[in-house]
Amino acid sequence: MKNFLFAVFLLTFSIGSMAQITVADPWVRGMVSGQKSTGAFMQLNSAEDTRLVDASSPDFVVEIHEMSMHGDVMRMKQIDGIDLPAGKTVELKPGSYHLMFIDVKRQLKEGDMVPLTLRFENAQQVSQTVKVNVPVKALNSTGPAMSEKHQHNH
């Protein structure tokens, strides 16, 4: 009975410590025929210190990436996560943090929707997932239009 009560306490503590995470303005850059990769962008906000630690889609490999300038050279590298300080919006955008879709088998075109699962961990390593259907924008798009804002709260 003691072990059961302890398990119930742990479950309650874990559920109670989940952060309110907001995903706003998600979008994926469209592709040209034969292209094998593209990027996804969005704004992330958490009520408590949290970290984006993984992203996945049933259609292809997803990696968390960072772009940065080194002199006149732009470099992109895979990173193990993105910190989300409590109450501060972190923007995944072209030329900065983004999600990289790799080994894409079909051309993603404007109007398509891409299922995406984001996994976050807080300081106590409690994991939370957020599922988002992300619209594909035109290849030359710089993001969603102001009238097309999408927001997902979890």
Automatic annotation (TrEMBL):
<dbReference type="InterPro" id="IPR058248">
    <property type="entry name" value="Lxx211020-like"/>
</dbReference>
<dbReference type="InterPro" id="IPR036182">
    <property type="entry name" value="PCuAC_sf"/>
</dbReference>
<protein>
    <submittedName>
        <fullName>Transporter</fullName>
    </submittedName>
</protein>
<keyword id="KW-0732">Signal</keyword>
<dbReference type="Pfam" id="PF04314">
    <property type="entry name" value="PCuAC"/>
</dbReference>
<feature type="signal peptide">
    <location>
        <begin position="1"/>
        <end position="19"/>
    </location>
</feature>
<dbReference type="InterPro" id="IPR007410">
    <property type="entry name" value="LpqE-like"/>
</dbReference>
